[in-house]
From TrEMBL:
It comes from Caldanaerobius fijiensis DSM 17918. One of its GO terms (molecular function) is mismatched DNA binding. Belongs to the DNA mismatch repair MutS family. Residues 308-344 form a coiled coil. CDD domains: ABC_MutS1. GO terms for cellular component: cytosol. This is DNA mismatch repair protein MutS. SMART domains: MUTSac, MUTSd. The lineage of its organism: Bacteria, Bacillati, Bacillota, Clostridia, Thermoanaerobacterales. Residues 682-698 form the DNA mismatch repair proteins mutS family domain. The gene is mutS.
Amino acid sequence: MTPLIEQYLDIKKQYKDSILFFRVGDFYEMFFQDAEVASKELDIVLTGKDCGTEERVPMAGIPFHSADSYISRLVAKGYKVAICEQMEDPKEAKGLVKRSVIKVITSGTIIDTAALDETSNNYLMSIYIDDGKYGLSSVDITTGELMATELASKEDLLNELIKFKPVEIITNKPEELESLLNYGSFVHKWDFFDYNIARDEIIRKFNVNSLEGLGLKYYERATRAIGALFMYIKATQMVASDNISEIKLYTISDYMIMDKNTINNLELLETYRSKEKKGSLLWVINKTSTPMGSRLIKKWLERPLLNIDEINKRLDAVEELVNNDEMREKLKACLKKIRDFERIMGRIVYKSANGRDLLFFNSSIVNLPEIKNIIQNAESDYLKELFNEIDPLEDVSSLIDSAISYDAPMTINDGNIIKDGYNEEVDKYRKASTEGKNWLAQLESEEREKTGIKNLKIKFNKVFGYYIEVTKSNIDMVPDYFIRKQTLANCERYVTEKLKEIENDILGAEEKVKELEYQLFVEIREKVAQQYKRVKASAEAIAQIDVLTSMAEVAKTNGYQRPILVEEKVIDIKVGRHPVIEKISDDIFVPNDTYMDTKEHMISLITGPNMAGKSTYMRQIALIVILAQMGSFVPADSAKIGIVDRIYTRIGATDDLSTGQSTFMVEMNEVANIVNNATDKSLIILDEVGRGTSTYDGISIAWAVVEYIAKKIKARTLFATHYHELVDIADELKCVKNYNIAVKEEDDKVVFLRKIMEGPTDKSYGIQVAKLAGLPETIIKKANQKLVELEKKHIYQKDSVEPIKQISIFDIGFDFKYYDLIEEIKSLDIDNMTPLQAINQLYKLKRALCD
């Protein structure tokens, strides 16, 4: 093997799981299998290189100045990329150039802003698994945010994975995570979860005496996860993670719990089917102006608060911004000028920022004094706190403004990065490279005048450099400070100290200025990096101001009102609206009232045909609750919301082919999860429970579920169903109220009025809905004929149906009796009955039911 390939292989041994980008001149080269993989994944030419063996080894290469885009593509596909740089100038190297890996880039450690979604965090997660319990730590190294917790169940872990969506996970037991991850997260086994090592790493990182001051004294699993995370970052980035300045320790009980089904069914972040942002709740409420704000509002939406004081603190600030148009408009205008300086700071700390990054950074922080000035007279406590948290960073801005050229290049080694006037030496070298001829001409003129030698000339050659040439006839006029350099037949050549200085400035000016500018830039970048705590505090404050301003703007534009949060278990909404449907529907949205408590209005049993609006109505209640507890105004004339600790939804189901589960089994799993985990402070939304099996099985299960919730869980529940038989449960359970979605019939057609009405419905309108859907007329006619036949045959006669047995899994049950009475009830002409006839008929029915 040639020395170069031997060097490559020695380095590659240390990074077997990475594609090695091996710097050779102006290229990163890859060899052997790395070259083959890179060629395929990056669509670049695969060539060969002589390496001292009989056959050429596979080789592929990319220009070093465009490496970021190639690295991003590889990382997005799950590869790790080790960057191996030349550690000395090839011109000065004695033999083989020294090379070393300076960082390893993974999906969770990439900091190239062009490769990241600015509206979402890029989380690297560490999970320590021990005896069915979990220590979890998540970091976005681009922002420096680090969160940690401990979890007691796999269900809790799954909920956190759904919220964080980590792009990369390190863990001691990767096999236990495989069944939980159904999205693109790359999992690596990591061996450094030892408690003592992790503890020492954390103590050293935060310069404390013990874990107690960090709140980690009794969190052994979380400590292991955090320490392992720091060690992984150090192993890959090879620099200190200085932008991580604190650990945000939390428990899942700090926030409302929403599982994957709830987040998907309510379309909080994206639409259920098309996975688009438009049509989601986030799409409606996210009017933020900065990337930091966009990331934060998503977190607030995913983690509604449970503490009323904290919620009201946000609502007070939103209300002030709603009522103060001038403050809100000024903030919006100023926030729009701010770039993602939180992530740029990450690039600065990890020594990846260039001159333009610093300019973009400065263009953002220069607005901080103005924002601080806008909110200086704010009345709400939250805005006052944010005023104090904003550091104007005027010294940092002044440094960058005085030092970095406005047209700084993308690279940091090619000069033209330092502004004129910042450094005398740079100015001198830069002037030397551009004005050297003028200096020489001026010196030549000065020496002629001093010496009186009229034909004195300054010349140059490659051997002697610059020199003063004097003819033999004028030698007696040469002054003492001329130093003889060379004697020729008809002249003498001299140098002076002044000429040596000019020569030194001119000949080395270009290279020297590049080297000096690079050194100065690194110093400036380091000075800025040292202010990471100040910058982080300001970035977090700006993000919060942005979110509050966004929520105020949405409230003002859409006519939202401030909700009232209470501890009592009530939901009282007047003229409530669905925040998304009213924005995307061409029809006029029909608002509805809602009242729920845990006594006489615990369970709303909603009947009505498909397309009538049952699901929309139920979802809008959940969305209003979520908005209220995240601190937002809500789409209603008024809303009194008793704190909800968890929201559960079961809306629709499909086969889960990956686990071999039928639609009905998926549905039952979801229902089981709800009834096993909901509390009396939860909000439950159930849509068509039991429809995946036979009619009577389905009715039985639905009845039993409603009764179990009413008697055991006692949670506020919205239960939509097509089973009209279920409406009778309201006679047995006083906490159940029947509601229906109003429908108007016109000439065998149905018009959906979208209005929720008290009381049950007795028709499904299934055939009419099928007609609206576009089924051929032949099918519609046949369906109507068959319906008449079935009704004539008294399909619900009691002798054709076996009594429904008790459902042991819920330890409750009921019987359906006397189905033959249904037709008699249907035939009653109530409109033409006298009061006496109606009473007599009622007694008759009562006797029949009691026999």
